[in-house]
Amino acid sequence: MDELNRKKGWELLPLLEKKEISAVELIQACLSEIERTGKKLNSFITVLADSALEKAREVDVTRSKGRPVGKLAGVPVAVKDIVCTKGVRTTCGSRMLENFVPPYDATVIQKLKEADAVIIGKTNMDEFAMGSSTENSAFQQTKNPHDLERVPGGSSGANRRPLQR
What we know:
A three-stranded mixed sheet has the order 1-3-2. It starts with 8 loop residues before the first helix and ends in a 42-residue tail after the last strand. With 165 residues, the chain is of the alpha+beta class. It contains four helices and three strands, in the order ααβαβαβ.
C-alpha cells in the first residue's frame, strides 16, 4: 500500500476505474500514512477518517453496480484548512476559529463533492494563510517529509529554509 501513497491523483484514477484497487483500499492506505507520519509532520489539523471511508464505500458500491461516478471518484483529496467545508471544523490555522464549523461548502468543495473526490482531511497552515512556513499556525508547525529540519513550502509550510530554533 505504501506505493499508492507515492502516486499522483491522475495515476490513481485509472487504477480505480479498472478496479485494480478499491476506493476503500486507497483511502485506508492514505489514512494509515497519516497515522504513521501525523505526529512527526503535523500536516493535518483535522482528519476525516470516518466520512472519508464512508464516501469511499459509496463510490465502490456505485462503481460495482455500473452506475456513473464523478470524474474524481475515489481519489483522496486533502483540503487547506482555510476552505469552508460544511459541517467540518475550519480553523484557518487560528485559535480564534478553533471551533468554527461552516454552515456551507465553498465552491471548490462543492465541485470536489460533485466529482466524487474523497476529502480525507484539512491541512495545517499559517494563520489565515498569512505567512510562508506554518511557524505562525496556532496549532503546530508542519515539517518537510524529506528533511524534518526544513519547512515544506507555501502558506501551508513555506520555502525550504531551515526551521527556526
